[in-house]
Specification:
This protein has 827 residues and is an alpha/beta fold. It has 22 helices and 28 strands. Helix 10 packs parallel to helix 12 and helix 13 packs antiparallel against helix 14.
């Protein structure tokens, strides 16, 4: 939905078609370029979409970056890269390739050593004095020239020599950069033997001694323009101008390195200041990278475009194969149709216009329908518009059956300041009352809504289920108490290592929020633990491959709701990505086919093929599998899929206050006048836990790790309740640990649907992190005795804390001080 807004970002376009080399005296406006990861072309973006972004951004230089070349090379779709380079050449955009001669892991030639003679583990860059290592580093440039005929320049990225081996130490006596310059000279000779016109470019810090040393070797200088919050842009430009005074007409665009780290994110104002300083100083530069600025959740592409003031970026870049991106004709038709809705006379004529618009939307193809509904959602949510221009689109969303718009309507109902918008959102959701999320949101609203107009609408649809105002007031959020355990709070066991060095592409366009993840890997239902991710999107939405591989299994039968197929990294492999709920009529492959990352796989099938509203979605998980002779396929989920993706989650899990109940029941021990609960006998602790990744997320997320701690400062019991970051074990063993949905709602607020709390009987654990039948006999037995016959839990006060961690390591805690009171006459 955000790309519709981005397309309205207006900017004064630069009319530049500058060459790669920009002499210091050239009377042209400084130019901008962009670097893009080679492995993203053809996987995250089609060549055509990326070329459109370059044109609309008026970028005059494109650098295809192999970065960690040992990682990205094997993941590069060279057919897509060359198609993109052909498009750039046709547009007279300067082209360069860039890499750094280093290993991601497992080096095969000599790498740099520290002062103690030990191999440096940071970056694992080659030793520039070792002949075999240098030849390895040079060979990558030769491979690029062989694979990509349109490349005119190869840039070596930041060739730092911090090696202390005897050869490098001896070379440094002749000059600090002697070894590196020898490598660069040999690289240029080797590359020109392959292609005489190729240029050697170098990215390096604006250190005068380096550029002086390379003056007769380097063809194009690309000093770093370090874009960081703490750096003074004016000083940075002055440093680069000093380099330009040395290299003169060899000066090329600087590398504008903008951080991809969450904690070091550059503010938009700072970015604008850097850009203005560069323009004022006559400095051309290219951003590193396109993915960071325009295809991640770290930076807002619209804000970036505005900050540059002279760049208009194509914000509707879609992954390869996706067919639901609107073109200009579709957008214009969408705007015309929706304008007819808001310009109709109020009353019956306006509803006639709404109904006519809905009729036309339902007759549209998927791409056009997606375009117009995206625009309708954008207008409905835009608070800069008058309410009278917003509310009609609530009906357009509802009556068109736009499942993607349900969460928007829920947000309007629960949070919008306008009673008109809340009442219309209630009416629109009432039309979707067979959708469980819509109904539960109406219940939640009814419990807190006091406006008569809104309540009248809610009452019409909820009837006797309508709660009184205040019945669903926001539940109290529990916090921990002082941890009396001498060892302090428990720490969870180490989780699995991230299985990929670079996050995979999402199956739908946009960042992590745009995926609309509704259920995650740990969500427990009444019958099983959900071992996958559910991406909530309407039937007919295209799905793209998150990773390359071979189609090893296609399981299809009537009805097609449960159809799935598995893509394995290796041909004939027994583990890989399992995609479920796609329509087999739309499959673009057969068993044995190779799938490219980002390739269109097919479209979502209608999940409930009846007249009721369905929760259409993609179910995705990473599995091992066996295929019997009979054809039956057995699946076993291996790891939380979020480990593979760029998942943004900064919100910790949260709790309701803990309940203390008689073991195996929901009968609660009561608190005294001071609020302290007195317990005795065998006790279970109930913890209601919820989690979201970002504000406003409408989801059913479970948490993967839960632990509890009970202590009086002398005796402590700390146990791991669950650890479901990897294999969850028997996914159907839920009743031992989780209360059923009805039991949980009887304890929690019945009118509160979002956030959704799962209630765990945390004391039902033997401490191994898996739910097994052996856990059934576990509880907090306050009458237990030690080996000498003395009480393990003598009467007194104890701290009880329950801890939960989400997949990103954010921790939440709830706690209470309780009184064990077993003996007669105990205070």
């Amino acid at each position: 939905m955000r790309f519709i807004h981005y397309l309205t970002v207006c900017a004064v376009c630069l009319t530049i078609a500058s060459p790669l080399l920009l002499p210091a005296h050239a009377a042209v406006t400084p130019a901008r370029g962009i670097a893009v990861l080679a492995s993203s072309i053809g996987s995250d973006f089609t060549p055509e979409d990326l070329a459109r972004s370059v044109r609309q951004g008026n970028f005059s230089l494109v650098v295809v970056d192999w970065a960690w070349i040992t990682y990205h090379w094997e993941r590069t779709d060279f057919r897509a890269v060359n198609r993109f380079l052909e498009l750039m050449s046709a547009d007279n955009v300067s082209i360069a390739a860039m890499y750094r001669p280093r290993f991601l892991s497992n080096p095969t030639v000599a790498t740099q050593t520290d002062k103690d003679g030990k191999l440096k583990t940071d970056h694992e860059e080659i030793c520039y004095s070792d002949q075999a290592a240098c030849q390895w580093g040079i060979s990558w440039g030769e491979k690029i020239l062989a694979k990509c005929p349109n490349i005119k320049e190869i840039i070596i990225y930041n060739p730092m020599n911090e090696c202390h081996c005897p050869k490098c130490t001896a070379a440094s006596t002749k000059g600090a950069h002697t070894a590196v310059m020898g490598f660069l000279s040999n690289a240029k000779s080797a590359w020109r033997a392959k292609r005489p016109d190729v240029k050697l470019g170098v990215v390096y810090m604006p250190y005068i001694d380096f550029w002086k040393a390379g003056l007769d070797i380097i063809d194009v200088a690309h000093p770093f323009l370090c874009i960081r919050e703490e750096i003074d842009p004016a000083k940075e430009v002055t440093n680069i101008q000093a380099v330009r005074s040395i290299v003169k007409d060899k000066m090329g665009p600087c590398l504008g390195k903008i951080t991809w780290e969450e904690g070091a994110k550059v503010s938009i104002n700072k970015l604008k200041t850097f850009d203005e300083a560069a323009i004022k100083g006559g400095i051309s530069y290219f951003f590193w990278t396109y993915e960071t600025l325009f295809h991640s959740s770290l930076y807002d592409p619209a804000a970036v475009a505005q900050s540059l003031a002279s760049t208009k970026i194509a914000q509707n870049t879609n992954p390869t194969g996706s067919t639901d991106k609107p073109d200009e004709t579709q957008l214009k038709a969408a705007e015309t149709l929706l304008d007819q809705v808001i310009h109709a006379e109020h009353g019956a004529p306006q509803f006639a216009a709404i109904n006519e618009a809905v009729r036309k939307i339902k007759e549209m193809d998927v791409e056009s329908r997606s375009a117009i509904l995206s625009l309708a959602r954008a207008r409905m949510n835009d608070k800069s518009f008058d309410v009278g221009l917003r509310w009609p689109f609530c009906y357009v969303i509802s009556r068109s059956g736009d499942e993607e718009g349900v969460s928007d309507l829920i947000q309007l109902l629960l949070q919008d300041e306008s009673q008109v918008m809340r009442s219309v959102a209630a009416e629109a959701l009432g039309g979707l009352r067979n959708n469980p999320a819509a109904r539960e949101a109406m219940l939640q609203s009814a419990g807190k809504e006091t406006n008569p107009q809104v309540r009248e609408v809610l009452n019409r649809y909820l009837g006797q289920a309508m709660p009184s105002p205040g019945a669903s007031s926001k539940p109290a959020i529990a916090v921990g108490v002082e941890e009396l355990a001498p060892s302090g709070p428990p720490e969870p066991p180490a989780g699995p290592a991230r299985p990929v060095a670079k996050p995979l592409s999402w199956p739908f366009p946009g960042d992590s929020k745009a995926q609309n993840i509704f259920n995650n890997y740990q969500t427990a239902t009444d019958e099983y633990i959900h071992c996958g991710l559910d991406f909530l999107h309407p039937a007919g939405t295209p799905v793209t491959a998150v990773s390359p591989g071979y189609v090893s299994v296609i399981w299809s039968r009537e009805p097609h709701t449960g159809d799935f197929f598995i893509v394995t990294p290796k041909k004939g492999g027994d583990r890989g990505w399992c995609y479920t709920h796609l329509d087999p009529k739309t499959f673009t492959f057969k068993e044995g086919d190779f799938i490219q990352q980002g390739q269109l796989l097919g479209k979502l099938v209608l999940f409930s093929p009846n007249e009721k509203q369905s929760m259409d979605h993609l179910h995705l998980h990473y599995v091992s599998f066996t295929k019997e002779v009979s054809g039956q396929v057995s699946l076993n989920s291996l790891i939380d899929p979020l480990y593979f993706f760029d998942w943004k989650d900064t919100k910790p899990p949260s709790f309701r206050p803990l309940w203390f109940v008689a073991e195996g029941t929901t009968k609660q021990f009561q608190a005294d006048s001071s609020g302290i609960v007195a317990v005795n006998g065998k006790v279970d602790i109930l913890a209601a836990i919820t989690d979201t990744a970002y504000d406003g997320q409408q989801s059913f997320l479970g948490v993967p790790v839960v632990m509890f701690s009970i202590s009086d400062g002398r005796h402590t019991m700390q146990k791991l309740v669950i650890d479901h970051r990897g294999n969850v074990g028997d996914s159907k063993q839920t009743k031992l640990l989780y209360l059923s949905r009805e039991e949980a709602r009887a304890l929690a607020n019945p009118a509160s649907f979002f956030p959704y709390y799962q209630v765990l009987r945390v004391t039902k654990t033997d401490g191994d992190g898996k739910i097994t039948p052996q856990d059934a006999g576990e509880c907090w037995d306050t009458t237990a005795l030690d080996s000498t016959g003395k009480p393990l839990w003598p009467d007194g006060k104890y701290s009880v804390n329950v801890y939960a961690w989400d997949i990103s390591g954010n921790r939440g805690v709830a706690g209470a001080i309780v009184q064990v009171k077993n003996g007669p006459g105990t205070d």
